[in-house]
Amino acid sequence: MKAFTYQRADSTAQAAAAAVKPGAKIIAGGTNLLDLMKLQVETPSNLVDINRLPLDKIEETPDGGLRIGTLVRNSDLAADPHVRQRYGVLSRALLAGASAQLRNKATTSGNLLQRTRCYYFYDVTKPCNKRSPGSGCAALAGFNRIHAVLGTSEHCIATHPSDMAVAMQALDAKVETVNRQGETKAIPIAEFYRLPGNTPEIETSLKPGEIITAVTLPPPPPGVQLYRKVRDRASYAFALVSVAAIVDSNRGRIRSARLAFGGLAPKPWRSAQAEQRLANAPSTTTTFNSTAAAVLEGARGFGGNDFKMPLTRRTLHSVLAEMTRT
Amino acid sequence: MEMNSPVGANVLDTPGIVGKPIDRVDGPLKVTGGARYAYEVQENNVLYGFVVEASIGKGRIKSIETRAAEKAPGVALVLTHRNAPAQGTGNHREAHPVLTGPQVTGYGQPVAFVVANSFEEARAAAYLVNVKYDRSNGKYALRANLNEARVPKPSDAPAADSAVGDFAIAFASAPVQLDVTYTTPLQSHAMMEPHATLAMWDGDKLMLHTANQMLNQGQQVIATTLKIPVENVRLISPFIGGGFGGKLWVNADAILAAIASRQLKRPVKIALTRQQIFHVTTHRSDTIQRVRLGTDREGHILAIGHDVFSGNLPSEQTYEGAALQTRTLYAGPNRLTRHRLAPLDIPVASSMRAPGESVGLMALECAMDEIAEKLNLDPIELRVLNEPSEDPEKHIPYSSRHLIPCMQEGARRFGWDKRNPKPGQVRDGRWLVGIGMAAATRGNPLLLSKANVRLGPDGTCTVRMAMTDIGTGTYTILAQIAAEMLGLPTERIQVELGDTSFPQAAGSGGSWGAGSSGSALFEACNALREKLARTAGMDPATARFANGSIASGDQSRKLTDLVGVGMDADGEIRPGRNNKDFSQQSYGAHFAEVGVDEDTGEVRVRRMLGVFTAGRVLNAKTARSQAIGGMVFGVGAALHEEMTLDPRFGYFVNHDLAEYHVPVHADIPDIDAVFLAELDDQSNPLKSKGIGELGICGAGASIANAIYNACGARIRDYPVTLAKLLSRLPVRA
């Protein structure tokens, strides 16, 4: 860990002003950042602590949705009655992530901004374009069991590890931000994450000094919600594949559906094509097959993660069959 | 006492505190933080060290730039091969020299040691050490280097090969044959407490607070390495947060701290980080195991063969003895076991959690399941058919062996009769459900161990030995033995362990700890009983000890009236003829029920039961805890644990506990362990046998067999992950 200065922000404006400076980094729960600092994967020169900001509320919005403060702890969000009743997919996704101890500490925006778990990213002696642009990608021809099969580039095949963000992707969440000029934005989550392309070190559309203040959820769409996480052990493991699904169906016919996937891509993966295959379609194996094919269009394995294609297909089958069972 | 004959009736045969499920005597210290582990020992003026690891697998340090680190805040010393002293050499069990030169023989080998006023300063400065290497092509992967494998010749392990009869002919002509190859992966001990040491010198005498399972052995290794007399080395290790074999030998933390402390004339403290432990310390080699079984049509084994490949540094002879149990577990006239060791340029491979049996049984006991199916035999029946009447290779009797009762009692308790031998027939929602079993066996070694017991005038009894308690319950069982032998409540027994200034002891490893140290204490107590009886003018043979008194006939004397300023006695146990004339093992049977998700291939254990016989159980609670802990290891071995080697770099890619998976609570549902009554009077005066590692032995195989029963997929490449199962599950499309 490199020596750094620490400052506690008393206002969002102050935090934004501090965060815009080179080498500054916002810290909230710290569950990911501190680990990365110990390994010198992250080497901020100044930490801006936002934990004292009054951004830890969950409020209903006038349109019947929910506004989740940036500092709301994952445990609190998962246990919130509104979330449990109306956004079950989010509650389940949160509880499928990390451990109880980590969820008690981890925040909403920290969860959104957590870094990949790629082994090579975590080891500063190994090439990694995300950590050290231009150094190469050790995962491409290395051990890539947990890596992405969709949205990759020749520079990076790392996945985004969040469960929460996958559910938010299915729920069409918006990320609210403010910058040092006090300008606010509401970024649709679909536009929030960026694919690696030639710049895997840039993971989101946030600008320097732009601070997440909240995540808003529109009213939930009709239908049943489900989060299925497939992993190597029963708890405390990142998703090999996860599915956040919201399916509105009746008597063997699907009216509409939303599908988002974790573990497959550098960002929570939503497939509009797949959702179209399900709209006004019978809940049959043929439909599920064509949906899975749409999700996996353009998918590419790198050896160790080839199994994610059949796994995705099978998991999606299982989820859709369960959700449309009459 | 030397174990040369059966021990006969003794004090422990009458019901007493030994065997009772009493709580750990050190429990309150542990849960209140009162138990001090090596890194927690406070010392004034202490400095902190941080290791810089080699980031190549094989090659040479071309240049090492330390100036920036030396100038960094708080830094007192940067040790490298340029300023480290000459040290003694040997294999990893004899010496552990560090920073010996520019050669890198394995990834993660320490290339520098930064010492500073605080841990944080040492760590920050460690990242400033700039090392440049000339990399050479190393040999890293076991499978790619089998053609160079040789016959290992260790001085402290059984011979690599054994043969009885003519295996080749018998196997070739056997009516029913099975020839299968199983592989087990590289594994890391993953104990909770990291390797840690606090070193300090007083003149030419070195004192180390260090996490080490075998202190007397460690003392010798440190003396050899530092080239100082063994009596000048003192190791202190009263509490150890798990070892699993990873702390059997001396690791770099102890030597680096000792060298730095000597140079700086100040105490130096170090704890390896979790990530460093994977490379800087030892691991278990992966194995490639070919098992061949030939039987007659009824299922009698005619030929049994087990060939094992493992890997280690070219300078090491330690092999993974995965075929050792195959020499003794089942009958059969024609037998062949062979171990081959491939020279590899990766960190030292050594003992981990039942070395040998734990991975060997994962092959053998699944092969037994496979041939049982070929024979259309129940797996338990097959094992009963092949129960030997004597050790089939050594042709000596077993000291005690109750494998069949374990299997039968386990079958009864588990509901084995409900098993459908045809795979894939039972389902619970989307879960395919199966059950499986496997036999458990683990050798029962006895090591030289000594003890001193002293009774003070206040009625407090102090037990001392250089024994360790790595979390197994040694403090507790020793307190129970002393309490029963001297007729005192356990509250009056003060057990002091973990200090080489106490009598030499076996240490904790290989399941020998309780039997060896407990027997030494038993002998010491016997000697003290004799002294007390003579002082009281009573016949030692008939004197009874109870309630703090000694009694004979209608006479009774308080012990405190006899001891004067204090009375003590020594005791000692040594292996003897019994350890050659009897085949000594603990036994058991594992039963597991698993669910396999028919869509995703996820495997979840639903129930586990182990039924064991291990001689006298010294504490029913700590014994059960140990057995359950071993069974949890079995879950990890079957389903989770694997270090992945990246052959481009010669390193273990997933070197942290986020990606080196061990089972978590949610993976361990309904689990129980039961010990059946048994006494083994050829084993040791306690009539106990080793239990520390018995729980892991066979546990993983029972899970793999249950997976096969659940879904019909026989995965011979551990761990059994969903990726390996997917293509074998019912089609979804």
UniProtKB/TrEMBL annotation, chain A:
Gene3D superfamilies: 3.30.465.10, CO dehydrogenase flavoprotein, C-terminal domain, Uridine Diphospho-n-acetylenolpyruvylglucosamine Reductase, domain 2. The keyword Flavoprotein applies. Signal peptide: none annotated. The keyword Membrane does not apply. Keywords: FAD, Flavoprotein. GO terms for molecular function: FAD binding; oxidoreductase activity. Residues 1-222 form the FAD-binding PCMH-type domain. Coiled coil: none annotated. SUPFAM superfamilies: CO dehydrogenase flavoprotein C-terminal domain-like (SSF55447), FAD-binding/transporter-associated domain-like (SSF56176). InterPro entries: CO_DH_flav_C, CO_DH_flav_C_dom_sf, Diverse_Substr_Oxidored, FAD-bd_PCMH, FAD-bd_PCMH-like_sf, FAD-bd_PCMH_sub1, FAD-bd_PCMH_sub2, Mopterin_DH_FAD-bd. It comes from the Bacteria. PANTHER family: ALDEHYDE OXIDOREDUCTASE FAD-BINDING SUBUNIT PAOB, XANTHINE DEHYDROGENASE SUBUNIT C-RELATED. This is Xanthine dehydrogenase. It comes from Bradyrhizobium valentinum. The lineage of its organism: Bacteria, Pseudomonadati, Pseudomonadota, Alphaproteobacteria, Hyphomicrobiales.
UniProtKB/TrEMBL annotation, chain B:
GO terms for molecular function: iron ion binding; oxidoreductase activity. Pfam families: Ald_Xan_dh_C, MoCoBD_1, MoCoBD_2. Signal peptide: none annotated. InterPro entries: Ald_Oxase/Xan_DH_a/b (IPR000674), Ald_Oxase/Xan_DH_a/b_sf (IPR036856), Ald_Oxase/xanthine_DH-like (IPR016208), AldOxase/xan_DH_MoCoBD1 (IPR008274), AldOxase/xan_DH_MoCoBD2 (IPR046867), AldOxase/xan_DH_Mopterin-bd_sf (IPR037165). Residues 32-137 form the Aldehyde oxidase/xanthine dehydrogenase a/b hammerhead domain. PANTHER family: ALDEHYDE OXIDOREDUCTASE MOLYBDENUM-BINDING SUBUNIT PAOC, XANTHINE DEHYDROGENASE. This is Xanthine dehydrogenase. It comes from Bradyrhizobium valentinum.
